[in-house]
Design goal:
A hairpin with a 2-residue loop joins strand 1 and strand 2. The protein is 34% helix and 25% strand. The chain has one domain: P-loop containing nucleotide triphosphate hydrolases (Rossmann fold). Helix 3 (97-107) packs across helix 4. It starts with 5 loop residues before the first strand and ends in a 22-residue tail after the last helix. The protein has nine helices and ten strands. The chain is globular. Strands 6-7-8-3-9-10 form a six-stranded mixed β-sheet, with helices on both faces. A four-stranded antiparallel β-sheet has the order 2-1-4-5, covered by helices on one side. The protein is an alpha/beta fold and 262 residues long. The chain binds adenosine-5'-triphosphate. Keywords: Antibiotic resistance, ATP-binding, Nucleotide-binding, Transport. Residues 8-238 form the ABC transporter domain.
Amino acid sequence: MTEPAAAVRVHDLWKSFGRQTAVAGIELALPAGRFIGLVGPNGAGKTTTLSMVTGLLRPDRGTVQVAGHDVWADPAAVKARIGVLPEGLRLFERLSGRELLGYTGRLRGLPGAEVDKRAGQLLDVLDLASAQHKLVVDYSTGMRKKIGLAAALLHNPEVLFLDEPFEGVDPVSAQTIRGVLERFTRSGATVVFSSHVMELVESLCDWVAVMAAGQIRAQGPLADVRGSAGSLQEAFLELVGAQGRADGGTLDWLGNQPGTPA
Ligand SMILES: Nc1ncnc2c1ncn2[C@@H]1O[C@H](COP(=O)(O)OP(=O)(O)OP(=O)(O)O)[C@@H](O)[C@H]1O
């Protein structure tokens, strides 16, 4: 059987900040056409990995291929094929949502009429049509995520990378984003997103990579990574070795109010 095409291939990838090793020689092969979750505790190295994979941060060592092109040898080819919603995303805030999409689409080299059509459709689907003429600086967190997502999707990328796309997003907007992403992967495109929220990853993703302390602890189809554990959350705690700390451990002073029987 031939191997399925990989959307992302990472080989021996390293990154340190001073004496802190953020990413320690990881290997990843993320299959195309899947909804992929990159999960890990705070400081695991997820953002650093996604930044290197999307060409925003130069690795100390190692190679990354996205959609068959080397990110650092052929950055233009990769950037034409990917969409990115980075963490703490910076947008051109003095533009309205509609203007931001118009500008992004033209930067991507799309014809004006096509940009207008796609922008209108994305604004509708993401429930931003009524706010399209408002400046982005006045958008709420959830609205910023949605306009960022629209900008990342406008050129119909092959692979979409999202760093914590649901953080600070209310359940209604989360459902809207989810619907758009599911439709996108059904069409054969790949979504790679990072999250701490295991239930979300479990309900959305069919493929997962678990990261801790700069290393990949497991990767594969969701059912394989979950294994015999009851949930992805349980499998995750086992993989990152966090079970012992789950009950607060040594915080014996916490909650013991004076006069309350122990
Ligand atoms: N620019 C930087 N300078 C110094 N250290 C950094 C920098 N960026 C990341 N680090 C360190 O690298 C490690 C990995 O950080 P990273 O942000 O990649 O983790 P993460 O898995 O995305 O965490 P979180 O889920 O909390 O966002 C952390 O120890 C962090 O302090």
